[in-house]
Amino acid sequence: MRIVGGRFRGKKILLPEDKRIRPTSDRSREALFNILAHDREMRRNEASLPQDARVLDIFAGTGAFGLEALSRGAAHVTFIDNHAASLALIKKNVAAFGAARQADILNRDGAKPGQVGEPYNLVLLDPPYREGLVTPCLQNLQRGNWLAPEAVIVIEMAAKEAFDIPEGFTEVKERRYGAARLIFLKLAA
């Protein structure tokens, strides 16, 4: 697996030895970031995402989503995971990319992240498939003030997994890529 665009383009991402983590395919990541960069509905203050954004990568696994965002111009990324091996892997990847000054790595439950100091413009949410973690995560992000008013939330989930958009959010678009689908949300007006 490699970074597909930006200043780290082509750089390898370290992967776990076991199959516990399900990394997002290069093709899906490229499609996601192309939508963020070029779709008018994803723009914030006339800038394309993730340019200069504060990014939150939840259920970060390898950190691939957040590292791709940094590669494409994000100002800062906070990685959240609560699995010791994932946290160690994220730390190694962040160090290998020389991105420690632009990153925070938090050992927290992605579905219950707690409170935050400064909100995020872009949230990349990639929980384990079919475990019902998306809705509680979104509700807790909203309650904990993690989301800036113009925040875009991108969820990766199984293509056939049931999902009802929680109150307070609006679906902007949805795309399917093989066994996965990407759902783009914003806070409801």
Would you mind describing this structure in some detail?
The chain has a single domain, classed as Rossmann fold, CATH 3.40.50. It has four helices and seven strands. It has helices spanning 26-38, 64-71, 84-96, 134-143; strands at residues 54-58, 76-81, 103-107, 120-125, 147-158, 169-177, 180-187. It has a seven-stranded mixed β-sheet, sandwiched between helices. Helix 4 links the parallel strand 4 (120-125) and strand 5 (147-158). The mean pLDDT is 91.
Task: Tell me the structural class.
Answer: alpha/beta
Q: Unreliable runs, pLDDT <50, ≥5 residues?
A: none
| pLDDT averaged over residues | 91
Name the overall outline. Answer: globular
Topology as a string of helices (H) and strands (E): HEHEHEEHEEE
Number of domains: 1
- Order of the strands making up the biggest sheet: 3-2-1-4-5-7-6
Give the CATH architecture: 3-Layer(aba) Sandwich
State the CATH topology: Rossmann fold
Number of helices, counting only DSSP H or I runs of 4 residues or more: 4
Instruction: Give the CATH level 1 class.
Output: Alpha Beta
Sheet bearing the most strands, described? Answer: 7 strands, mixed
Give a short overview.
Helix content is 23%, strand content 27%. It is of the alpha/beta class.
Question: What topology does this entry show?
Answer:
Elements: H1 26-38, E1 54-58, H2 64-71, E2 76-81, H3 84-96, E3 103-107, E4 120-125, H4 134-143, E5 147-158, E6 169-177, E7 180-187
Parallel strand pairs: 1-2, 1-4, 2-3, 4-5
Antiparallel strand pairs: 5-7, 6-7
